[in-house]
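#data-curation
PF: Archiving a pair of folding outputs for the training set. Convention for this channel: one message per protein, sequence first, structure tokens after, nothing in between. First:
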Amino acid sequence: MAFQNTREFAQQLDSEDSLQQYQNQFIFPKVNDKRVIYFTGNSLGLQPKRTKAYVDEIMNDWGNLAVEGHFYAEKPWWDYQERFAEPLSKIVGALPSEVTVMNTLTVNLHLLMVSFYQPTKTRYKIICEEKAFPSDQYMFQSQVHFHGYKPEDAIVEIKRREGEHNIRLEDVLAKIEEVGDELALVLIGGVNYYTGQVFDIKTITAAGQKAGAKVGWDLAHAAGNIKLELHDWNVDFAAWCSYKYMNSGPGNASGCFVHERHHSDSSLPRFAGWWGHNKERRFKMEPNFDPVHGAGGWQISNLPVLSLAPYLASVEMFAEVGMEALIAKRDKITAYLEFVLHEIDREVAGTFEIITPSNPAERASQLSVFLHGEGRSLFDYLMKNGVITDWREPNVIRLAPVPLYCSFEDMYDFGQILKNGILKE
């Protein structure tokens, strides 16, 4: 499509957008009494208006039923998490038995590593990407220390080539082959938080498993954002947070995936707790652990239903929309934002360098923009003028045009505000 950097053209795109109605289903902050242009759904998604009713339902049941709410609430608390299985499985491309919700992201990755990182004297190395999210880096370091290894010996980072912003697939595959028989685990972020690069999960998973390793994925920036086929891609395990693209609220519950081929493997170690115990016998308080068959067998504690309620509101909205429609708009609105940035770049003295891959297959709802010649003052100008975005040192802004609540007219308005901010400096 031939784009135009005009308000009329952006409004035309909005009029053709089948998801435009969903923008009114979210609560937006305001700056100067005007709804903001919100670009930080890759950090914390906006609150859906329907969320309050889901939380209020639990509060009312708690007040009216107290402990009896576990069994007699409209959505009984003791199996509340099971309502996620069907809609969440469609979001990540899994069987319903392969997904569950519990804890938070790094906690779940640690718990899954108990099962899937089992180093030996000869096979103990972990491959991850350079500049992984810091929480993942800390997790790797603590895990290898726990097993008696030194991070500098056990952790292998796949690096970017000199002068390049993104990691090449051939370099990932070459590193897997190089580490070979020493490789115990590949664990990479499905979408790099800094650059927005989308990794080839299917190809990397197959290569890691061919080398004899387990392969897991941190899908914090991928779930609800990219097309996932975790079951068909034969991924061993994965975890993701729910508060970015899935709008469940700050620090909220994490989703987990464990491939069905591991469900009956009694040799896998795991940290057990009573909510992972046989559901039909859970309240018999038996002394020996009998895990639920499926990902639910990795659950440990009674689920915090007040936290799960906003997440349930979100996954039910995703079920209405469908990932196919989300991805179609995602690609179009991201391409339009890219076009607007290039148009503004031609009109101002500064230089923008988009460090996110230009290939649509290697990116999703994020463009990371290196603002050469600009400083923090431009970011401050954007924030004061109603553009909520994210600053990363030295001078990168991350822009996430989330398809559920960002409009094409937002992209046009952002371009004008950005241009004015640069011209005023």
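PF: Second:
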Amino acid sequence: MSFMQSLLNPYPWFKTMREQHPIYFDQTIGSWVVFRYADVKQVMTDYEHFSSAPPDRGDGMNMFANSMLMTDPPRHRQLRSLVNLAFTPRMIEQLHDRIDGLVNRLLDDMLAQTEPDFIRDFATPLPMTVIAEMLGVPTEDQDKFKYWTERIITSSNNPNISEIVPIYQEFGAYLFGMIEQRRNAPQADLISDLLKAQIDGESLTDMDLIGFCALLLVAGNETTTNLLGNAVRVFSEQPAIYAELRANPSLIPNVLDETLRYYSPVKAMPRHAHTEQQIGDVTIPAGQRVMAVIGSANRDESQFPDADTFDIHRKGNQHIAFGHGIHYCLGAPLARLEGKLALEAMLKRIETITIKPDAQLEPIPTPITFGVKNLPVLITTSE
């Protein structure tokens, strides 16, 4: 079976691979694939041997090459130190009331729909609006950003590069235009702040800024959208969990962490072997791609007892859904805040939420993320 099959439920295959072929080469994606928790953690943490910086493709698709996601130390540390200024606990907490108001407005709109779709009506516009507002993207342009981010996320599985390059070019040109506008007329937004930020006398270049903005829009949106959508999948599959959560909302942090582990929004992350590397009894040649499967690692029975059980009371949940080591997700506190406020409002206003029995869910067709494009739901309210 290929890594690109069973996108709606790859977990039985992950289990088989952990037991029988924990490291193998997948021809369909041209990559070594690593499934066990310890091995995945090693690949994600050991940046000296497994680089985040991909080889130069030279095809115009290098927008993210200057982002933290695709750089190694020392450059990674410099970039993270600069952009970390925008993600301090104080900065995130200042977004609380705005996110809370947005959550309830989106719930109003979704509950007014005769055929609500949780992804379309709630899980997509919530993080998109929050991040777009942080960057200063006008409301009327947010649909463009959703289109661009969806195409970029799925481009990892598109062999026809000529179809994707224009998307990157349009996206990059728009971001460059925003940077120029803020350079000439600063506003109260993240791009203006990053243009002023300096550490050790160094400022971000335009390509650094474009890489960061693109990363924030793509990774920040998709991760939170999938986290919320995957939580609703759990609630639909196991209604007792939602009922218990309504009875005890203090369990919201547990549910968010268990959702991150059980249905990890980021399914896998790529690395490249600097030199020939040995993982277990497999030798990976220098320069070859390695896919660290976070979704499989977070179901590894050697790390998580009863790994295939969604345990709302799980203790010591050391999942790696937000990554590990120097590349631990900078936006994790924002995703947690959005998830917490979303669930708090849902618990107050929604008595039950289940996926429509006849719904044909469409998985996101990429090896990188785990989620669905649509989630038609049946809702009973407590209002």
